[in-house]
C-alpha cells in the first residue's frame, strides 16, 4: 500500500516528465523493471486506492478514494496487490445501470479476498459480472472468440512448437480432454513415483489425445482417406535387426524414415514401434522416388485379436502398470517385419509409455502358459528375472485355491 501511495503521488507530480518518460506507466516499468501491463495496472490501482488531490480535509478522504474498502485491506496487509487488481478490474467493467452496486460488489470481493487466492477471486468476479452485466459478458466472450489463435512450427531440431490462445469454451474442452490422459502414473511395486514433470505429462497426454482422434471414425477424410501418419523408409533398413547393426548400437548410415507431414526424420527404432499396431501400405518407389507399385494395406491387429488381447492383458500387460493413459497398442513380440505372425500368442497389449520402453530398453517378452512374462534388460536387473504381466488369470486363481477348497463329493452312482 505504501508503494501504491508513492506511485499515486509521483503520478500527480508528473515525475515521469522530469525523467523523460512519455507516461507514468513507462517510467514505472523502467524504474521497477516490471512488465508494461503490470506497470499500467499498478498506476490505475494507485489512483483508485489513494485520496485524490482535491481532498482538502481528513473527513473527505474516504469519499475521495474510489476503492476505500480495498485501500483499507491493503493498508492492513490483509490482501495483496493481485487481489486488488481483481477487484479494480471487476468494478471497471460494471455497466452504467449497475454502478450503484459498486460498493456492495467491492465489499463482497474484499471479504472473499481475505481467504481466497487471486485466481479463485477472479472466478467470483466473473460470476458477479455475468449476473449484473449479461450483455457485457457476452460481448467479452465474442471478443475472446475473435482473438483465438493457434500457431505451430517445426524447430531446427525437428520438434514441433505450439502456441495457442483459446477462448474459454474451447479451453475448457481442451482441459477436460487432456486431464484424464496426463495424470501421473501409479507408483510401482517398489514405491517409485512417476518421474515425469508436469510439462512432460501434458505432452504425453496430448500424444494420447492425438491417438484417440486419429483412430476415430468421425474424423473428416482428406482425399478419401482417414487422417493418418505417413512414414517413408527404405524397406531393408526397416527390416534388419537394429540391435546388431553396429557395435555401438547406432543405426547404419541412411537408415532413417521421413515423416511426410513435417518433412522431419525418424529413426528405424521409432518406426518399428509405430508399425507394431498400424495399417501398413507397401509402396514401391523407383530410384527417382516415383511410385512403381502399391500393395494392399493390412491391419496387424484385427478387431478379434485386439479383443482377445484386451481380455488377457487389459489396457497394458507391463508389470505394475495400472490404468495407463492413452489407447492401448498391440505389440508384436517377434516383429511382423521380421516374420512374426499376427496371432495372440505373438502379441501383447502395451500402453504408449511402456510400448516405447520395451522398444528402447530391450525388454524381453515371452508367453508362458498363456500369460505374458517380461525380462528386464541387464542394466536394470543383471539376472533378468522374469516378471509376470497382464491381468490376473481366473484359471490361475482357481488352481491356487484348489488346496483351500475341497473338491465336492460326487454323488454315489445308483446301483439299482
From TrEMBL:
Skewed-composition ranges (Basic and acidic residues): 406-416
Coiled coil: none
Segments of this protein annotated with the region Disordered: 374-416
Domain HNH nuclease positions: 304-356
SMART domains for this protein: HNHc
Family annotation (CDD domains): HNHc
Domain of life, per lineage: Bacteria
Stated family: Belongs to the Rv1128c/1148c/1588c/1702c/1945/3466 family.
Protein name: DUF222 domain-containing protein
Species per Swiss-Prot/TrEMBL record: Saccharopolyspora oryzae
Upper taxonomic lineage: Bacteria, Bacillati, Actinomycetota, Actinomycetes, Pseudonocardiales
Amino acid at each position: 500500500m505504501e508503494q501504491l501511495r508513492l506511485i499515486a503521488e509521483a503520478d500527480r507530480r508528473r515525475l515521469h516528465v522530469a525523467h523523460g518518460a512519455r507516461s507514468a506507466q513507462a517510467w514505472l516499468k523502467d524504474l521497477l523493471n516490471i512488465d508494461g501491463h503490470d506497470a499500467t495496472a499498478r498506476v490505475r490501482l494507485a489512483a483508485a486506492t489513494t485520496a485524490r488531490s482535491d481532498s482538502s480535509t481528513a473527513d473527505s478522504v474516504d469519499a475521495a478514494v474510489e476503492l476505500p474498502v480495498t485501500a483499507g485491506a491493503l493498508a492492513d496487509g490483509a490482501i495483496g496487490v493481485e487481489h486488488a487488481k481483481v477487484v479494480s478490474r471487476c468494478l471497471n467493467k460494471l455497466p452504467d445501470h449497475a454502478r450503484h452496486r459498486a460498493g456492495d460488489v467491492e465489499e463482497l470481493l474484499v471479504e472473499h479476498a481475505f481467504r481466497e487466492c487471486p485466481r479463485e477471486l477472479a472466478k467470483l468476479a466473473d460470476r458477479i459480472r455475468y449476473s449484473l452485466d449479461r450483455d457485457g459478458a457476452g460481448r467479452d466472450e465474442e471478443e475472446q472468440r475473435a482473438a483465438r489463435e493457434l500457431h505451430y512450427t517445426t524447430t531446427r531440431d525437428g520438434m514441433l512448437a505450439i502456441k495457442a490462445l483459446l477462448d474459454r469454451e474451447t479451453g475448457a474442452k481442451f482441459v477436460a480432454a487432456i486431464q484424464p490422459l496426463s495424470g501421473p502414473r501409479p507408483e510401482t511395486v517398489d514405491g517409485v513415483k512417476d518421474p515425469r514433470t508436469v510439462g512432460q505429462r501434458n505432452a504425453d497426454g496430448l500424444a494420447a489425445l492425438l491417438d484417440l482422434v486419429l483412430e476415430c471414425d468421425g474424423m473428416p477424410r482428406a482425399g478419401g482417406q482417414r487422417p493418418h501418419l505417413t512414414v517413408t523408409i527404405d524397406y531393408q533398413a526397416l527390416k534388419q535387426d537394429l540391435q546388431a547393426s553396429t557395435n555401438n548400437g547406432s543405426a547404419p548410415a541412411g537408415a532413417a524414415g521421413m515423416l511426410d507431414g513435417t518433412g522431419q526424420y525418424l529413426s528405424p527404432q521409432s518406426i518399428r514401434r509405430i508399425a507394431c499396431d498400424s495399417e501398413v501400405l507397401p509402396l514401391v518407389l523407383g530410384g527417382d522416388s516415383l511410385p512403381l507399385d502399391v500393395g494392399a494395406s493390412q491391419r496387424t491387429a484385427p478387431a478379434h485379436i485386439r479383443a482377445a488381447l484386451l481380455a488377457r492383458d487389459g489396457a497394458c500387460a507391463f508389470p505394475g502398470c495400472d490404468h495407463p493413459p492413452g489407447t492401448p497398442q498391440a505389440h508384436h513380440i517377434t516383429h511382423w517385419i521380421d516374420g512374426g505372425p499376427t496371432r495372440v500368442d505373438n502379441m501383447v497389449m502395451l500402453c504408449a509409455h511402456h510400448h516405447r520402453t520395451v522398444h528402447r530398453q530391450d525388454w524381453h517378452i515371452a508367453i508362458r502358459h498363456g500369460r505374458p512374462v517380461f525380462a528386464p534388460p541387464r542394466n536394470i536387473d543383471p539376472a533378468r528375472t522374469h516378471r509376470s504381466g497382464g491381468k490376473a488369470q481366473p484359471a490361475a486363481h482357481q488352481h491356487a485355491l484348489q488346496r483351500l477348497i475341497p473338491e465336492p463329493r460326487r454323488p454315489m452312482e445308483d446301483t439299482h
